[in-house]
Amino acid sequence: MRRWLWGVLLLGLSPLAFAQSDQCVSKLSIHLIGSYTEGAKRIIAAKPTVIKVLDPQASAGMREAMRDYKRRHPKGLVVVRVWERTSGLRYRLEDDPVQSADDFWNRVLRPAMDALSASDRRLVDFLEGPNECENTPCWESMEGARWFGRFWERLAERIAQAGFRPCVGSIPVGNPGGNIGEIRAKLEAFLPALRAAKRFNGAWSYHSYSIDYTTDPGVEYWFSLRYRIFYEYLRERHRDLANLPMILTEGGIDRAGNPNQDGWRARGDAAKFQKWLLWYDSELKKDPYVLGVTLFQIGDPSGWWSFDVEPIAQWLADVIANKPRSLRNPVLNGDFELGFTNISGETVANGWNTWDAGTVNPLWPGSAHFWQVGGVPGSAQRIISGQIAGQSFRGGVYQVVDVVPGVPYRLTFDYLSTGTSDPGAGQEFRIGYDLSGGTSPTHPSIVWLVSTHVPSFSWRRVDTVVVPTGERLTLWTWCGIYWPVATTTLDVDNFSLQARPMLLGRVTLGDYMGEYRCQEVQVQIRNSTGATVWQGRLPLSVDGEFEVVYETNIPAGMYDVALRGTHWLQRVVRGVSLPGAVVDVDLVNGDIDGDNEVTLFDFGALVQAFGSMPGDAHWNPNADLDGDGEVSLIDFGVLVKCFGEVGEG
């Protein structure tokens, strides 16, 4: 039996060995630094294929992240980079590369790994070395590339001897430099490192950044997709290395590495970055040797604020988990738990923008609007307004979100307003939305769901249905007061905007331990006469969820819903009220031939595929009943257990 091979998927198997996770699972993930934030926890709960952590030996947060990730996703991959002790450490061409590798291991990597407990060391899959040529000769010349190759050949051996897999290179974006011929020559010089990576079940890494948010593969071929140049060369000249796994251990938007001006937040907005990431993910899925990209960074909002992916953490988690649209909240940081950003002295929840109308009472000029967090971060965004020493205030926060025209959305939020009980104070409390997607708080198309001059003095909830007419919608808050020497506050929390589905469902795939995101279900909606009014094959989320999107051509009423998987028997749920119903179904495994029964024909199909793995001539993915990547005795056990079962019609 070859079950052990599945555990080392990254050993350079044929391209077909990667096919199951190639197109069906997002390759986006995160590079964690410093703190294990709320956003990082959400992303890890989505089970990305790989994560990267910095200095876990020195950070309790990074150790917690590793433990949480492996508990949720035992097959997931953890990459560790050690930054401590590297400052001022520099090797030269005149130094012996083998001795330098031993020195780097003894002074940097070994002490860091020894500082971890035995249980935490077992969580580490890949160990990186020098980052982006900061400590070594590298890609600046042919001599540097040869030196670097010999250095990594030795360091990979030392890493493997300690029980870890080497992740070699950490090649900065745009490197190796030069034309195609020069790049190939430097890769040739680096071959000893690549062969060592393969010999020790390792991988290599490239730092994959876009400079200008481009979605043209021809442009990105030289930047975020530059690794394709490497693999074209390997396929042509060194086919034994053509499937060496690569982990993009940094990625995102960058220009020159300046944390104040070069990240995605300094040169765009969330919508722009999200659009680029979806394109980028679609390109990475085309390359089976790429195991994933760890987007830089999350956990250090002050030092690397413009690169921080915390504001889009929930969105990123939903993409990775393949969540149905109706379970996604397009509002960034709708519950105000994902940290706060200092902008011109104001403290505003990530993902939201501020507006300030300035002077609202001509008798009291000189507005000086200010903000704070209500209570502690995670409770609410408090908008403070008022007049102090003759200054009057009016302002709020807003956010423009992407929506689908014509689909009903349920909009909910909580709010608490406080202030004076004097009716002449001129207090203003407003919360609403603008279907035009505009960014002016005085636009006549804004629908104010809350519009009052009287404070609530207690938490209240708003729950309504919104039907967008365009692709963007703006959420607005507004707070103000005219009366001198008084303060008015508005706390807002738990903004949620969720599309209404025709049908939302969840299936449990019986006797299956594989990747749900690589499975789909066939769904039929039947009316009272038994006629099928809608059918389709729908992808599953990481938790087995699916949805039939809102369909205006299916009248409201009672329907039967039939569900079946690729090798699971059909179940029929009767009397389902649409739209908006939720169904939860367990499916029985074992129907290899797809006839909706578990019979001797299925035994025959399993016998024919027995012992096969992806890439083998007799491989049959439907015979891999337990989803472990091999047709084995375990699959026979599943078939025996379910033998004789018949699906519903």
List the helices and strands and how they pair.
Elements: H1 3-6, H2 19-22, E1 28-32, H3 38-45, E2 50-54, H4 60-72, E3 77-81, H5 97-114, H6 118-121, E4 126-127, H7 142-161, E5 165-171, H8 180-189, H9 191-199, E6 203-210, H10 217-220, H11 227-237, E7 246-253, H12 270-284, E8 290-298, H13 313-321, E9 340-343, E10 346-349, E11 353-356, E12 370-373, E13 381-387, E14 393-402, E15 409-418, E16 428-434, E17 446-452, E18 460-466, E19 472-481, E20 486-499, E21 503-509, E22 520-526, E23 532-539, E24 545-548, E25 557-565, E26 568-578, E27 581-587, H14 600-609, H15 633-642
Parallel strand pairs: 1-2, 1-8, 2-3, 3-4, 4-5, 5-6, 6-7, 7-8, 21-27
Antiparallel strand pairs: 9-10, 11-14, 12-13, 13-20, 14-19, 15-18, 15-20, 16-17, 16-19, 21-24, 22-23, 22-25, 25-26
Provide an overview of this structure.
- With 649 residues, the protein is of the alpha/beta class.
- It has 15 helices and 27 strands.
- Strand 12 and strand 13 (381-387) form a beta hairpin.
- Helix 3 packs parallel to helix 4 (60-72).
- The chain is flat and about 80 Å long.
- Residues 1-21, 360-370 and 373-378 have low confidence and may be disordered.
